[in-house]
Structure formats: C-alpha cells, structure tokens
Amino acid sequence: MTRLAVDWLSCKAHGMCYELFPERIAADDWGYPILDGEPIPPEMEALARRAASACPTLALLVRIDPARRGPR
Q1: CATH assignment of 2-65, given 3.40.50.920, 3.50.50.60, 3.30.1130.10, 3.30.70.20?
Q2: Which pLDDT score is estimated for 68?
Q3: Is 43 exposed, middle or buried (0-12, 13-18, 19+ CB in 10 A)?
Q4: Half-sphere exposure in the Cβ direction for 26 (13 Å, CA)
C-alpha cells in the first residue's frame, strides 16, 4: 500500500503537489496541502511520484508499506 505524507517542517506551500495531483491533494486557505489520507491505488502511483518529485522542498513524501517492498 502506498500513501502520501507531508514533511510539515519542509513544506513552504508552493502548490506544485496539488497542481499535479488534484485527485488526492487539495489546498487549504494558505496554500498548504490537504491529503485525503487514502491509500494510492497502483494506477495512480506514477502521478503521486511525479507530484512528490516536483516539490521544490521535497516535502511531499511517497510512503510504501514495508510488506510491499518484497524480500530483503
């Protein structure tokens, strides 16, 4: 299971994340992201990764459930 998270100390409300992934990220009144908290389905993972990589401060994080990572 993949989920989005925000590093609130790094986020500066540039707005790239919700511009690129409005299906799962909204903006509050100050431009900070509001995540819906739902798992990201496999068909949307590329969109989530694109939004995270576009963040100027790298504050948007894509978290992968350790069970999905496979054997070490």
Answers
A1: 3.30.70.20
A2: 59
A3: exposed
A4: 5
pLDDT of residue 71: 60
Q: Is the whole-model pTM more than 0.90?
A: no
| Amino acid identity, position 34 | I
Tell me the C-alpha distance between 68 and 26, whole Å: 27
- Can you give the residue ranges of every domain in the chain? 2-65
Taking CA atoms, 56 is separated from 14, 31, 45, 53, 63, in Å, by 8, 14, 19, 8, 18
Mean pLDDT by runs of 10 across the 72 residues of the chain is: 96 97 97 95 96 97 77 58
